[in-house]
Amino acid sequence: MKTDSPHILCVNPWIHDFAAFDFWAKPLGLLTLAAIMREKGITVSYIDCLDRFHPREPSQMKVLWDGRGPFRKTQIDLPQGLENTGKKFSRYGIKPQWFKEDLEQINKPDIIFVTSLMTYWASGVQETIEAVKEVYPDIPVVLGGIYASLCHDHAAKNTLADLVIKGPGEHQLKNIIQKFTGFELDAGNLPDVNIPDVEISGVSDVPGISNRVNDLDDLPFPALDLQNKIVYAPVLTSRGCPFSCEYCASSYLEPKLRRRSPENVFKEIEHWHYSHGVKNFAFYDDALLVNAGKYAFLLFEKIIASKMDLFFHTPNALHIREITRKAADLMFEAGFKTIRLGLETTDFSADRSHDVKVAENEFFNAIAHLKAAGFEEKQIGAYLLCGLPGQNLDDVEASVQVVKHAGIIPVLAYYTPIPHTPMWSDAVKQSKFNLLEHPVFTNNTLFPCVNSSRDLARISQLKNS
After folding, report:
1. Does 240 lie in the same domain as 105?
2. Residues 188-200: what's their mean pLDDT?
3. Do 216 and 277 fall within a single domain?
């Protein structure tokens, strides 16, 4: 058994896309693993290929008041099969030479962990691992994250990763580290997720983690301090979602809704504010307000009582029916500045094609509560799904008008076909691309399930209306 602590490098990969912007986007899973390993005595390094504040960045990157801002952008060749789209494709993030220099300047790692987010950013992950292997060809690379979980076979076949894992990584750490380094990680108090279809190929002979508990409060706060600069902090108060929407993979990635205590979440917010001066926080939850009386309200009350001057944002959308007058008042007093509602459509009929999660009166009541609490129109946006398989754009246009009439901002959410979702098979059948060939064809910028040029023009008009 190896007793010397290994050195593990964590890498957040480049993005390859037609457009990208830092909308409070951080690799929370990877940074949580980094914090766990650091807490267990392992040496951890971190390189963020999306770093807006890289030391070699010659110009100060723009930072909006809420912490968001643009990534460095470099045009690259269009993926095969998209050469005739007339679009421009880019690498977002630091220069490859900077990445190479960063890799060469750190002490040689024993394992390299690479995360992944959007499935259609697959080629960015591929390029990142190729760059890693050029500097450290003999060091094992472990790939995890959303793309790795949803497109496991594609990732295993098309990247140079030595191991591709599915699902949350914290309960797989012990096996991975022991397999590649021989180091015995003390895995006590790591949460047990009990998720089927989570596998580590080739390590079945390694003993699993003992003394596991199902308590997210036992996890350390993510290692945001490994960044060159912290301009906002992502916060996740829960994992999972009680809904199983046809277009969403949340219930596949996290089959159970698990919660952190309000006390634990408050301590995290307090930590980043007082230790690092962070004022902007983005909630990553899929179900922030669900069962709010036992969770969110207690957290908001603690924030209000603390009198910390903070700004909160909800990019992942709030469940509309949970926005009561009390919820709206507490959010306003706590310092919420960006409210996004998961509306999807204003077709509230019971016989509509897709799930009905909110009734018409609930939608208008929620808006009334938010405005009565003090929120302005520019702070409230409602996500409307656009580009679904077989979708009638008349319904989208009608929804846009209803939302505008309600006095808030319609935000078109372009549909991305995602494997392991109920809608995936319809998308595969109706798409103008072969979605099974490569994840890049699922990119919502391409509107893969909109086959009419007339409809594409109409979507453009709706976006700009």
Report:
1. no
2. 43
3. no
